[in-house]
Amino acid sequence: MMTINICIGSACHLKGSYNVVSELQEMIEESGLGDRVELTGVFCLGHCTDAVSVQIGDEVFSVNTDNVEEFFKNQVLAKI
Question: Can you spell out the DSSP letters for the chain?
């Protein structure tokens, strides 16, 4: 099971974490990966000045609605 931690702290919330969560949920469902990918809300991953902080394993990515599809393709689909 792959766990994707998404920051929902105040800075990331203002940068659109809710939209990133919604889009990732939709992509996971459309790809039929609901039993293999878990989304978890967390607070501050330490990258507050970037976009929404998203963590897989030890890597933290800056994700927004402009690059969420690319992130999903390269970091989730390619590694599942």
Answer: -EEEEEE-SHHHHHTTHHHHHHHHHHHHHHTT-TTTEEEEEES--S-TTSSEEEEETTEEEEE-TTTHHHHIIIIIGGG-
